[in-house]
């Protein structure tokens, strides 16, 4: 899936945009290859379904954009009780695009409207920087780990090539429309 990426004038901003786009591609790959029966399968105990996890990821992204970059178009939140895999994929793609715009502004030129990262209404804002990107990636990776573990525990393990494919960042970058991955220091 390729989409038009915002123009970013700093190396840090360009790299952040590419990393978050590849991060979302992993989410898309997981949903594409997840057994449809796993989507709403109820795990034992008081645990979110896979559908609820992916809708939570999207809805948290919308909160980041709403609190950090309210001048951007805020994606519509998803309902975890009724969201289908295609709706989750579309919602995640849209919220990823807004997060990419937010990162491009925050980590791009001086004079951006994005001056601080607000991860939640109760949390103290952070200055924009690598911490912002790292927080966003860690949140998503945590929930992807839950999805992979739940799918396996519920009897719907992801195919081995999918599990290993989410670590093939060169391929993910190409699927996002970027050429071959990160630039070496001599190419910057």
Overall description:
It is a single chain. This protein is an all-alpha fold and 188 residues long. It has one domain: Four Helix Bundle (Hemerythrin (Met), subunit A). It has a two-stranded antiparallel ribbon with strand order 1-2. Strand 1 and strand 2 form a beta hairpin. Helix 1 packs parallel to helix 4, helix 1 packs across helix 6 and helix 2 packs antiparallel against helix 4. The chain starts with 10 loop residues before the first helix and ends in a 13-residue tail after the last helix.
Topology (SSEs and partners):
Layout: H1 11-33, H2 50-68, H3 85-106, E1 116-117, E2 126-127, H4 130-153, H5 160-165, H6 169-175
Antiparallel strand pairs: 1-2
Brief sketch in words of this structure:
The chain is mainly alpha-helical.
Q: Looking across the biggest beta sheet, what order are the strands in?
A: 1-2
Task: Give average pLDDT, whole number.
Answer: 89
Distance N to C terminus: 25 Å
Total number of helices: 6
CATH architecture classification name: Up-down Bundle
Strand content: under 5%
Radius of gyration: 17 Å
Shape: globular
* Major sheet: 2 strands, antiparallel
Structural class: mainly alpha
CATH topology: Four Helix Bundle (Hemerythrin (Met), subunit A)
The H-level CATH homologous superfamily, spelled out, is dinb family like domain
């Amino acid at each position: 899936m390729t989409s038009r990426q915002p123009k970013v004038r700093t190396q840090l901003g360009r790299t952040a945009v590419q990393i978050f786009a590849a991060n979302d591609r992993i989410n898309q790959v997981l949903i594409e290859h997840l057994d449809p029966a796993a989507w709403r399968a109820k795990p034992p105990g008081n645990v979110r379904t896979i559908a609820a996890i992916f809708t939570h990821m999207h809805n948290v992204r919308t909160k980041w954009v709403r609190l950090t970059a309210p001048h951007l178009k805020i994606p519509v939140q998803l309902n975890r009780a009724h969201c289908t895999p295609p709706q989750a994929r579309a919602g995640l793609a849209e919220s990823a695009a807004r997060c990419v715009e937010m990162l491009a502004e925050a980590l791009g030129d001086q004079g951006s409207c994005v001056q601080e990262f607000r991860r939640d209404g109760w949390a103290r804002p952070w200055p924009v920087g690598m911490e912002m990107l790292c927080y966003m990636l860690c949140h998503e990776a945590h929930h992807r780990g839950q999805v992979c573990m739940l799918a396996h525990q519920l009897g719907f393990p992801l195919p081995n090539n999918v599990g290993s494919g989410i670590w093939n960042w060169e391929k993910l970058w190409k699927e996002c429309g970027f050429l071959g991955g990160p630039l070496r220091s001599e190419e910057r």
